[in-house]
Amino acid sequence: MTKLLLATLLLAAAAFPQDDGGQSAIAPQQPGQQAPPTTDATGAQPAHDQEPPDKRVFGVLPNYRTANETAVYTPISVRQKFVIASKDSFDYPLVLLAGAIAGLGQLTNQNPSFGQGLAGYGRRLGTGYADQAIGNMMTEAMFPTMLREDPRYFRRGYGSKWSRAWYAATRVFVTRTDTGGHRFNYSEVLGNATGGAISNLYYPDGRNAADNALRLGEQIGVDSVSQVLKEFWPDVKHWLFHRHKEPDDASLRPSLTH
Fold first, then answer.
1. Tell me: the pLDDT tens digits for 58-117?
2. What is the pLDDT of residues 141-175, one digit of tens each?
3. In Å, what is the CA distance from 5 to each residue of 17, 202, 221?
4. Domain assignment present for 166
5. What is the DSSP letter of 36?
6. What's the CA gap between 237 and 25, in Å, rounded?
7. What does the alpha-carbon distance between residue 183 and residue 206 come to, in Å, rounded to a whole number?
8. How many independent structural domains does the chain possess?
């Protein structure tokens, strides 16, 4: 699993010089001026009336830092960056994620000094939660504030499924600045690298360069997968809850007369 994540990250990194997200910085809209239509690579025009993103994906996963790519860009304040990071770091689903990672670590006996049984699982759960929370604070608040980068994920919502999946997965390497431009996502990489360095304080078995690189790859991989889920969650929700609704227009319903 870890090798697959690292391979995905390398492929995503290779895309950075070619892809700025398929969008140029959006100029502020003047009062009374209609937003100009834009098109994707396939010539399809995106919808400008996308619904605001849900605060949770599948009703569970936190989704506080998602915005619509087609909306006119509005920067967020330093305070808002810390609010987003705090919500992502201290929400109960983070414990569930840490629990799943701890279970995998228990199964493969990662960090043998933690031992097995409930005590070993508890240590893995605590350190897994610390990894996620510290990583969130570093990548969504501390480094975005220092580097003036926007920590939000900008959902595209249009184009082919493959182009949207590629776009979402590679946003861990491409971000927006506070002025609306695009550049390499230093906050994601440096923030998770800093979190990995801090984790050396509580990982007695993994303090060498290879272990730190592995944790960095896992953190970025988790963020990449979560952004793909955020990209497609509205489509999944529509498919689950709206596909069986009858049309409101009576003219579209089957006629009962012969």
1. 666 777 889 888 778 899 999 999 999 999 888 888 888 888 889 998 998 888 888 999
2. 999 999 999 999 999 988 999 999 999 999 999 99
3. 20, 24, 6
4. yes
5. P
6. 29
7. 32
8. 1
Q: Are 150 and 78 in contact (CB under 8 A)?
A: no
Compute CA distances 220 → 7, 87, 125, whole Å.
Answer: 12, 19, 19
Question: Is residue 249 included in any domain, yes or no?
Answer: no
Is 30 among the domain residues? no
Which of 113-117, 185-189, 211-215 has the highest average model confidence (pLDDT)? 185-189
Query: Which DSSP category does 25 fall into?
Result: P
pTM exceeds 0.90: no
Q: Quick one: CA dihedral 143, 145, 149, 150, positive or negative?
A: positive
| Backbone angles phi and psi of 59, in degrees to 5 | 75, 5
Range of the domain at 225: 62-236
Asked if residue 52 is part of any domain, the answer here is no
Q: How far apart are CA 250 and CA 70, in angstroms?
A: 33
